[in-house]
Amino acid sequence: MTARRAKRAVLTRWVMFGLLVVYTIYNLGPILWLMISSLKSRADLFAMPPTLVFTPDFSGYQSVFGLGAARDSASSIGVFDSLITSILVSTVGTVVAVGLGTLAGYVCSRFEFRGKGDFMFFVLSTRMLPPVAVLVFYHMMFAKLGLADTRLGLILIAVFVNVGLATWIMK
To answer: Would you state the pLDDT for residue 73?
Structure first.
């Protein structure tokens, strides 16, 4: 009976492994198709039946990243500036929010003060407010302060939105 159980365990393991491989291919298939499609020319992309053998075309990437012949063209999107802004805003906003949240969380967990429960509820309730509800207020305030359409304005919004969660987590 022991040898039979061992064979059955090995068979079960191989069947599970095969099912996991099929499941992984099923889930990664659309991503692979997207990556392959990004390298096709427009004619190859819309060809019927779909072509599996093609010459890679990088003109789409050149247009998006503003490289090569598309550097000075009107179709150049220039993703690098937006990418740098996103990285800068998210990094600085997160570091500042976590820093302030750590200080506030330390105070709330170390010291007893009147209204501590109300304060922590207020901190938590800021996460319940949809950001769209304060969008007009932020725009009006930042326009008056000269921070509209600036990286500093985006960083401040990132801090305002995330400091409550950071405080709650650090407490």
So the answer is: 60
